[in-house]
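Reader question, answered in our methods column.
A reader sent in the components of a multi-part assembly and asked whether the whole thing could be modeled at once rather than chain by chain. We filled in our standard form and ran it. Here is what they sent:
COMPLEX SIZE: two components
ENTRIES:
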Amino acid sequence: MTNTIMILGMSAVTVFLKAALFIAGDRITFPPLLKEALGFVPVTVLTAIIVPMALAPNGEGLELTWRNPQLVGSIAAILVCVATGRQLLTIVVALATFFFWQLGVLG
Amino acid sequence: MTMTRLSSLAAGARDTVPMLVGAAPFGVIYGTLVTAGPLAPWQGQLMSLSVYAGSSQFIALGLVAGHAGLAVIWLTTFIVNLRHMLYAATLLPHVAHLPARWRWLLGFLLTDETFAVMAGYYARHPKAPLGHWYFLGSALAMYGNWQLWTLVGLLFGAAFPQLQSLGLDFAMVATFIAIVVPQLASLPHLAAALAAGAVALIGQDLPYKLGLMAAVLVGVAVGLALTRWRARGLARQEEAA
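And here is the structure of the entire assembly that came back:
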């Protein structure tokens, strides 16, 4: 019973964080500085999520070596994306490089 | 018209496929952990259905196993999931015009992955009239995926040891790179991303995603400062000319 209450409370907290601003909708207008700041949120948050996954994939410090398939795959992704600007191609080449490296080169 | 809505919905789901692959092992691992802990299986599924935020679900399992109190668990959930409010603030201009039921639904379904997909989508199509259908397609695909793999973990978790070592979460890294790189065309955005990445790396051992929040704060500050600095440089050039 306590666990169910715990889960429903977590749900209430999370739904509030996710949906409160959407529900407020047009009633909220952000000041110009905040709008400008929010323009940097996608690139910063997405980069902040993946950099540790690529450079320290095992959570045991930096792995800046060719033996790190996450790093090799990420470099491939960046190169393909800069060169072609094509999203699907970037993902396919990155995954192929990653698995080739993990299973073929290091396996 | 129905076709266009459907095709937007399908396009959103399609562009989320790599994220589905990336999230799958975590769903299974989560389900497996539930069976090893004090929660009943149905409660594990209820958490996926009603909380629907992976990191906080994992952390809650740990806290429950450690006999933490309700207040601690709820406060931790608040801190770990605070980033969603930032996502909502960023996406708000694109959904503010929608009927309330749409805003409730899209808000409830917001995740890291769907935010990434939508940030990329709105960067390419700022005025898309059917963007909310694309949003819904991406979000429902992620939601269904999370429920499915939670259930698989609950039922057959013990049969998948070593799931984490497959490295399927690299699909998320690859997709995020494909979304972020095209948005790094300006110096302030590039510098903001680099600063955020560096801080995230330094702070990766901080609990409750605090490293992530610090990374965003520093990155945004760097971006704003550089924008100011460049604007001042341009103004000075114009004065000189």
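What stands out: DSSP finds five helices and no strands in chain A. Chain A has two domains: 1-30, 31-105.
Send us your own complexes using the same form.
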